[in-house]
Amino acid sequence: MTERPAGRHLSAVLANPRADRVKQVAALAGRSARRRASQMIVEGPQAVRELVAHRAEHVSDVYVSESALATRGPLWAIAESALEKGLAVHPVTDEVAHALSADAQGIVAVAGLAAIVGEPVVRGDRLVAILSNARDPGNAGAAIRAADAAGVATVVLAGECVDPANPKVIRASAGSLFHVSVMKVAALADATDSAREAGLTVLAADVSGDVELGVPGALEGASPTAWVFGNEAWGLSADELAMADRVVRIPIFGEAESLNLGTAVAVCLYWSAFAQRL
Is the whole-model pTM more than 0.85? Predict the structure, then answer.
């Protein structure tokens, strides 16, 4: 008989991939279902591990492959952590795991949308990332991951940005979505105004920049800074660029035409993070 994680007992094995519960969880991949239920689906070991570790109070259920539990590997440890926190953990067959999500990798969780914390920019914040009209979920998730790695506490999604509860955003963030505050505002001006009120300099990253990143003495990198990044396809409009204190371009030393959003976010935020720590 398979030994099970310590703590609260696991639920009975879910074996019917056509069960209503399974269909309801799988439906959370869609935005309308998330809004109706005020819940989201979190897929894969890394994202579920970070969700349980940092936002466990918002988790309603964890579903884990019975075959994965039998190996006593990483999923075993996540299930044990969830049980220790009093969460409901449901073993499922591999067929049910796939029905819950094709990207389950053996484990998914259901959490309230409040697990994505959205706190406003406040005085004392040293580094903030603002994404304007970021539509691609992979890019948005990668940008959130880069921001988290650079020590950013707040990421602001301004305008018509992708839903941060989109499963692709969550996967691309590799769990960072549950480490930082991700807030949404209706317009970029709301974000830049809040940043200035909090004492941050607003820098926009754009190929049209009048100053080049990394040029000695060109920018005061150590000051509290909010970086603004535009849409993946069209960048920032002239009106949006006018909302920044300075417009900064990232130098391209090779033959690439440009950097993708996630890479640009990482370069700019790390430049500020290094400057602030020297």
Answer: yes
Structural domain harbouring 181: 127-277
Cα separation, 99 vs 65, whole angstroms: 12
Residue 9 inside a domain? The answer is no
Give 76-81 contacts, CB < 8 A, sequence gap 24+. 76/5, 78/45, 78/48, 78/49, 78/52, 78/107, 79/5, 79/10, 79/107, 80/5, 80/6, 80/7, 81/49, 81/52, 81/53
What kind and span of H or E run contains 70? Answer: helix 66-70
Which token pair is 89? 């953990």
Cβ count within 10 A of residue 18: 9
What is 34-61 written as a DSSP string?
HHHHTEEEEESHHHHHHHHHHHGGGEEE
Looking at residue 254, the DSSP 8-state letter turns out to be S
Give the end of a domain, one of 59, 90, 115: 115
The residue type of 46 is Q
- What is the number of alpha carbons within 13 Å of residue 204 lying toward its C-beta? 25
In a domain, 190, yes or no: yes
Burial of 257 per CB tally in 10 Å (0-12, 13-18, 19+): exposed
The pLDDT score that the predictor gives to residue 2 is 43
| 153 plus 262 within the same structural domain | yes
Q: Please name the amino acid found at residue 109.
A: A
Stretches where the chain sits below pLDDT 50 are 1-3, 6-7
**Does residue 7 sit within a domain?**
no
